[in-house]
Each structure stands twice: as structure tokens, then as C-alpha cells.
Known about the structure:
Blueprint: H1 2-18, E1 31-35, E2 38-41, E3 50-55, E4 58-62, H2 68-81, E5 86-90, H3 96-99, E6 109-113, H4 116-126, H5 130-135, H6 139-144, E7 155-157, E8 160-165, E9 168-175, E10 183-188, E11 193-197, H7 214-226, E12 231-234, H8 243-264, H9 269-275, H10 290-300
Parallel strand pairs: 4-5, 5-6, 6-7, 11-12
Antiparallel strand pairs: 1-2, 2-3, 3-4, 8-9, 9-10, 10-11
The chain binds zinc ion (ZN).
Amino acid sequence: MQIMKITSATLAIVVSIAAGSVLAQDLGPRVKKLADGVYVHTGNGFDSNSGIILTDEGVVVIDTGQNPIESRAIAETVKKLTPMPVRLIIDTEPHGDHTTGHFVFPQAIVVAAQGGGESMRGADKAAPNRIQTMAATSPQMKAALEGYKFITPHIEYNGTMTINFGGKTIELRHMKGVHSESDTAVWLPKERVVFSASAFVVNQINILRPFVTIPDILAAGKMMRSLNPENVVPGHGTPGTTKIFDDGEKYYALLMQRVDAAMKQGKSLDDIKRDVKMPEYASWGSQDRMPTNIEAAYRALGGRI
Ligand SMILES: [Zn+2]
């Protein structure tokens, strides 16, 4: 009887280790637990962030990292957390700095908002030597690209999608006109975490493409704030709270105000691009993207291009 007791106690310890009770420091400084079974793998600097969600039926990864070196680091983190495979990948956007590493998780089904596959195929066609160029950047990158395969979304949804998988509920919200051709906010209602894609980035000027509109960005922020999340994980930049949306709104409000004043003076778009300055945001990264922001503000205020 005594032996039996020791055995079951030992077994309980072994089981709890196998179930993934890893000490936080073992995961390194870039991995943070946000809620039960929900982790963020933060990118270096402005590199893309990824999410790791543990479920009873396997792992869900949100974005596979800035590049394949990062994808392999994410795969290592997953291995420390659980012996289960990555079975699902959710793309918050189709750009290469979120999707090139999909091949590192060959057992996964990839889900994206409508337009994701088309965007990826277009980018691949436009830069056919992209992978060779990437491999040439360093021996580490070359090694990380070993076995590369171009993987586009297996499933594309439009509007919203709810995934009930392994005891976790994951809601996808298609955000149109906020950053890329296919942007998804990933919301975990029970854990109160939202992966907010690149609708808002932190301490950085975002690139606003011709199909992106400031009203769409602001509407996406409003929608995500209404979910009442505790944690907000942007596509790029330090994860935080809904303050990320507040900061973005304040920035766009000031930008619109200044562009509006310049338009009322009868200035041309070129003059406005030259004259409008945002010194309050001089510390933000990617200042070279400012003309795309001024152009979006100009369009939002009824200016014709
Ligand atoms: Zn992007």
C-alpha cells in the first residue's frame, strides 16, 4: 500500500511535467503568458509578434514569425509547452513577415480572411527570388529555410468565423481596409485576449496603402475595444492594453486636424505632404511612411487624388 502511494504521487509529478508546467524563465524573455494556455512570442524590435494557444487537441499558432529563424524559435517554445503538434495556423495578415514560416509547421491547417491566398500568390509572383535573397542574408537564415515550401491559406472566411477547438473558443473578425488585403483580429472571449493584427502598431508610423482608409482603421479600433479585452497583442510592437487603440486614435485625430487645416488654406496634396509635420510623434519608427498617412488623411477628408 505504501509503495502504491509513492508510485501514484511520483506519477502525478511526472504527469504535471508532461502537461507543460514550465517555469516562466525557461521560455525566455520574449515569451509571455497572457492567460491560461495563451502565450505571446514577441518579435525583436518592430518584428512581428506571434501567438501560441494550447488546446486539448493540439496547438494553434497565430502568425508564424518575422522570418523562418523566428518560426523555428516559436516551434521550440511550443515544444517546451506541450508534446502536441501545431494543428492550426491563423494568419492576421498575408505578408511575408507573418507567413513565410508556415512550412515549419507542416501538420497545420492555415486559416485566413478572404483575399489572403491571392495576396500571397501576388507577392510571390512579384518577387520570385524572395526566398533565395532571404537565404543569402546569413548562414542561420539559410539553415532556417531548409525544407521551405510556399504555403497559402487552406481555408479563407469572410466576415466572421468561430473556431471551437480542443476546449478553446477562437473568434475571427475580418477587418477590411486597415492594413493588408486580408486582416484578421483573433479574439479569445474566455481569456479576454485580442490579437489585433496590424490595424494599429505601437510607437511606429504604419504604412497606409491606397486601399487602406483611416475611417476603417478607427472602426476596427472601436470594434476591438468593444470586445473589452484585457490584453491586446498588435501585429508589431510591444503587447499592451486598449491604450494601443487610444494612442492610435489620438495620432489620427491630430493628423486629420492638421491636414484639414492645410486643405482649407487651399494647399495641394504635394504642398500638404511637405508642410504637415507631426513633431509630437518624432520618436515613432518608420517616419518615411508619413506621406502615406498624409495621403490617407487627405482622402478621408474628401480630397481627390
Ligand atoms: Zn504587413
